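Re-run requested by the PI after the first attempt was lost when the workstation crashed. Everything re-entered from the original request form. Ligand of interest: S-adenosylmethionine.
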Amino acid sequence: MEQPIIARREVTKYILEAFGHRAKKKLGQNFLVDEKVVESIAAATECGPGDIVLEIGPGIGTLTQALAMRGAQVKAVELDSDLVKVMGKTLEGYDNIEIINADILKTDILKLVGKEEFTVAANLPYYITTPIIFALLEQHLPIKRLVMMVQKEVAERIVAVPGGKDYGALTVAMQYYTEPKLLCTVPAKAFMPAPHVESAVLVCERRAKAPIDVDEATFFKVVRGAFSVRRKMLSNALKNMGLTGEFVSAWLERAGIDGKRRGETLTIQEFGVLANTFK
Ligand code: SAM
């Protein structure tokens, strides 16, 4: 059955009114109503027949439909059961879509998707963007690429370079696991209802191999320690790992890193040296 394109403003408005659905702010419900943006997210996944896409927060099925029309096998996890009912209608007739009514943070993704490589596509709910990203990365899932809409400010943190105010633990984690690139910025008017912030789409290619050879647990412990306080010298910040000043001084000397520097000036390679000289 031919379904109308959900990404059109008038179609989304009609669907929301027909189901009497009021967007739930606490679940970050801002529905995309810009067909070009939806199409560019779907195209950036580069998915087609035979590919699996995990979609997080499908809402009323806007991006889900665009992905399904490309022929990909879509597994979409939506928390709001009211919206799952809506999608029962808006996505009726597509045999390559599976809707799962669940919290993505409590979902066994590997069990859902299987061990095959897959792509993640999402217009993320902004109230839990960072927990979702960390959950996806730390589980070592066979993710090939993540295409995701996030708050513009979060996108800037993810693609930041050392030395700037945006560079932090999220930057290091994303750049350790992936090669993130900004695809486009998206104005608030592309959503219904319009959020109070601008958004951006990121394409993050999963690295085949980590950029540095480290024990991951130690590496991330060091990163968290270095960013535990902003604008503080490393010699002080690293003490927050439960270490004495003497230990930290000796460690920094072994690593050949000046303790007067701040965590936000360190490259991923330098964090690697710190992790590898931590004894
Ligand atoms: N994909 C749709 C679109 O682009 O129009 C909706 C995106 S909206 C920004 C975020 C969606 O994530 C909402 O449908 C919301 O109900 C859903 N959501 C919020 N928290 C979630 C969670 N923990 N697990 C799964 N979905 C969630």
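Saved to the shared folder this time. Residues 27-32, 56-59, 62-63, 77-80, 83, 103-105, 123, 125, 128 surround S-adenosylmethionine (CB under 6 Å).
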